Amino acid sequence: MAQLVKLQDYVSRYEKDLKRYPTQFVRLKRQQWERTKEEFEKGSFNTTWTETEEKIEEPEKKSIFSKLFHRKKVENSDEETWETSEIDIVDSTPDEPTPLFFEPKIVYEPQTKEDLKRMYLDQLFHFQLKWASSTLREKSYVDPKFMRDTLLRSFMQNLPDNYLLFYYPILKLKKAPIELDIMLVLPTEIVCIVMLEAQNLDAFIGSSDRFWLRKSGKEEKKVLSPLININRMESILLQVFQKEEIDLPIRKVILSRNGYIDYPGSSYNVQFIDSRTYEEWFSSLKSSPSPMKHMQFKAAQAILNLVQTTSYSRSSWDVDSEEKDD
Predict the structure, then answer these.
(1) Could you give the C-alpha distances from 277 to 190, 191, 274, in angstroms and in order?
(2) In angstroms, rounded to a whole number, what is the distance separating the alpha carbons of residues 128 and 156?
(3) How far is the C-alpha of 133 from the C-alpha of 309, rounded, in Å?
(4) Spatial distance between the Cα atoms of 2 and 164, rounded to a whole number of angstroms
(5) Is 118 helix (H, G, I), strand (E, B) or coil?
(6) Cα–Cα distances in Å, from 249 out to 87, 161, 184?
(7) Residue 269: CA count within 13 A, CB half-sphere
(8) How far is CA 122 from CA 12, 45, 54, in A?
């Protein structure tokens, strides 16, 4: 599960301590899954199911798993476990407020292990959004659209744990905020992605001009060339990497999951991935034989040093929330 390091300008736990949270997340994910799976296999789930809403804030009420997940550590079984990309798991247990500790909840009765895994990953997705929008003392308002963002969910739920995801981060360069697109910091490279999606089966006709042509049925419309954004991202990263002495290759991708891209010319070092090649590309992206590396952390930290953050203190946020509820 790719780790959401930065989401727009939301305060993130990772920007507070990048060395600590990646390993802590993997440890939590693996331990909770083993315990949840063990309880499922023993058939000892409570028959009273807990309903939860599609929102980031967890209920104050303890889940039915709370006591289970605070038992002594269960030894790893010999069965298949999720890939952790050889990350060294730190088994420290820092003090954390309960609302920010991952505690899965039963929202329906899983019939198979796959059902259980799906339910677990969905709740882990919400938990990652919480870590990418709050710290012990600060909190950011999260746009509900990210809960429904299929691309964000797909990246986070299907890519390896050793991938660090920057999702439309806002950087502050020369006192001016600049929103970038998507960046995946891998152990051996950084993948910059610009999305090009509208309606299903739309065709994007590319050129070296400032504008491309989008064909949707019989309709045609000009759209800004995605090459502008992808080249700007590369330029910014190259400047940052040169200053910080970071040696990490940059791969550029123009992506359309539900449409077609026709680029008759040649564009240096840019991959055009559309509905015809998406599955193969995404499958290859999931393959990562390398564990997390020092240069990967150094690159991610260099980007985090430039991000813009908008947040509220937890005390004032909680007061405002209570007033609205009243």
Answers:
(1) 20, 17, 6
(2) 9
(3) 10
(4) 6
(5) helix
(6) 21, 20, 12
(7) 10
(8) 20, 19, 10
Residue type, 288: S
How far is the C-alpha of 207 from the C-alpha of 264, rounded, in Å? 7
DSSP single-letter state for residue 310:
B
- Tally the residues of the chain: 326
Nearest to 5 by CA among 248, 138, 185: 185
Q: Is 251 helix (H, G, I), strand (E, B) or coil?
A: strand
Average pLDDT, whole number, for the chain? 80
Q: Give SS3 for 212.
A: strand
Q: Which amino acid is at 60?
A: E
Helix (H) or strand (E) holding 278: helix 278-285
Is the distance from CB of 150 to CB of 23 less than 8 angstroms? no
Question: Is residue 160 a contact partner of residue 128, using CB atoms and an 8 Å limit?
Answer: no
Task: State how far the Cα of 284 lies from the Cα of 67, in Å rounded to an integer.
Answer: 40
Q: Which helix (H) or strand (E) holds 47?
A: none
Helix orientation angle between 113-131 and 21-42, rounded to the nearest 10 degrees: 150
φ and ψ at residue 137, rounded to 5 degrees: -120, -10
Q: Locate 52 and state its tokens.
A: 């939860």
Give 158-223 as a 3 state SS string.
Answer: HCCCCCEEEECCEEEECCEEEECCEEEECCCCEEEEEECCCCCCCEEECCCCCEEEEEECCEEEEE
Distance CA(293)–CA(174), nearest Å, equals 30
Segment holding 17, helix H or strand E: none
224-269 confidence digits (pLDDT tens) = 999 999 999 999 999 999 999 999 999 999 999 999 999 987 777 8
Taking Cα atoms as reference points, which of 181, 217, 186, 211 lies closest to residue 199?
217
What is the rounded radius of gyration, in angstroms, for the C-alpha atoms of the chain? 21
* Residue 129: φ, ψ to 5°: -60, -35
Model pLDDT for residues 113-131, shown as the tens digit of each residue: 888 888 888 888 988 898 8
Question: Partners of 177 in the beta sheet?
Answer: 172
Read off the tokens for 158.
Answer: 């299907």
